[in-house]
């Protein structure tokens, strides 16, 4: 048994990376840095040493993209792929996985949950941190999360306030969680960072299975009890809610391990500007010819296509197949609203 069973949460749609991210090809299947390695594959690669091999790596995903998971991760055992019949958000995904891992490995197993679409710049530091979190979860009745040291007042992330220190593991201090703060405005985010007590919520969780099952029974019985009785057949009746909201904001066992490695959750097209910050004037993951154009993001899936601009500033231009997206950078969070509008028109649904 490895010290940690990693579980990749890969059921999201990644709508804010449309039109490259579509129903049949969600964000986690994309390579957004030009490396040719998808976000899902990069996540699996950095977790494999912790898992001790493919036999102990798990993925939770949706029916629509399960075949794509198998294609992208051909060495992953099919029995380690949990396919949700309905999208019920992360609380149901974590609860169902905890039940299944408890049956296979037992309640003392330490499990970690990892979104499929994160970018990590220092894999060795990431792995060392998780070893410390695993040891903490082994020794304590705790549900640990990694808190990323903020580098700017982000408004798209949740924040975690650290309380009293609980212990230090391998040089990493670990704290009780005082509170979670959801996506503040810029002024409030600045105030939180200035206190020195807040970190970004990474959405990564580490715990012993028996601990989280007990806490789910206490705080989220309408999710865990149907799963214990009926298994995946109960999915259609489960409430749709996040693990953060359903349990982490309720439990008294939440702890946070602050980390400082480079991290990004790649929430929308503006994330490319953060990843490619060394580029001049524009972020160009497409052939571009331009005059007096700066502060833009260009992306094309066909390397033969050329984007030509004149006097364009602070704009996102994305080319994929039969769709071209042109958007102001400060409106990237509104892509979901645009896709809802396309969904309502039968003539546009094939664009999704």
Describe this structure in words.
Helix 1 (39-51) packs across helix 4 (123-139), helix 3 (89-105) packs across helix 6 (209-219) and helix 6 crosses helix 7. Strand 7 (159-169) and strand 8 form a beta hairpin. The chain has a five-stranded mixed β-barrel. Helix content is 30%, strand content 28%. It is globular and about 60 Å long. The chain is α/β, with parallel strands linked by helices and 352 residues long. The termini are far apart.
Features of the shown structure:
352 residues, alpha/beta, five-stranded mixed barrel, four-stranded mixed sheet, 10 helices, 30% helix
Would you kindly provide a brief summary of this structure?
With 352 residues, the chain is of the alpha/beta class.
């Amino acid at each position: 048994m490895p010290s940690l069973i990693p579980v990749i949460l890969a059921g999201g749609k990644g709508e804010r990376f449309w039109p490259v991210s579509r129903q049949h090809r969600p964000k986690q299947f994309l390579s957004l840095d030009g490396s040719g390695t998808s976000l899902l594959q990069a996540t699996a690669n950095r977790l494999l040493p912790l898992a001790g091999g493919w036999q102990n790596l798990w993925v939770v995903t949706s029916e629509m993209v399960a075949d794509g998971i198998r294609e992208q991760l051909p060495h992953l055992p099919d029995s380690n792929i949990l396919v949700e019949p309905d999208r019920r958000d992360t609380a149901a995904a974590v609860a169902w996985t905890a039940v299944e891992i408890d049956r296979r490995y037992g309640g003392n197993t330490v499990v970690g949950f990892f979104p499929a679409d994160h970018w990590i710049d220092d894999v060795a530091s990431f792995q060392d941190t998780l070893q410390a979190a695993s040891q903490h979860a082994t020794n304590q009745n705790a549900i640990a999360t990694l808190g990323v040291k903020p580098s700017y007042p982000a408004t798209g992330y949740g924040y975690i306030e650290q309380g009293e220190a609980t212990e230090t593991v391998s040089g990493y201090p670990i704290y009780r969680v005082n509170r979670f703060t959801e996506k503040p405005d810029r002024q409030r985010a600045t105030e939180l960072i200035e206190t020195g007590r807040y970190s970004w919520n990474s959405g990564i969780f580490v715990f012993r299975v028996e601990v989280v099952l007990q806490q789910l029974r206490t705080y989220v019985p309408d999710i865990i009890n149907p799963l214990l009785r009926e298994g995946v057949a109960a999915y259609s009746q489960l409430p749709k809610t996040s693990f953060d909201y359903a349990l982490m904001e309720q439990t008294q066992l939440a702890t946070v391990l602050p980390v400082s490695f480079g991290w990004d959750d790649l929430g929308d097209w503006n994330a490319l500007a953060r990843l490619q910050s060394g580029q001049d004037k524009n972020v160009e993951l497409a052939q571009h010819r331009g005059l007096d154009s700066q502060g833009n993001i260009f992306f094309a899936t066909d390397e033969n296509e050329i984007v030509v601009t004149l006097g364009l500033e602070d704009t996102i231009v994305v080319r994929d197949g039969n769709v071209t997206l042109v958007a102001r950078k400060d409106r990237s969070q509104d892509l979901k609203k645009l896709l809802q509008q396309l969904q309502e028109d039968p003539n546009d649904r094939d664009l999704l």
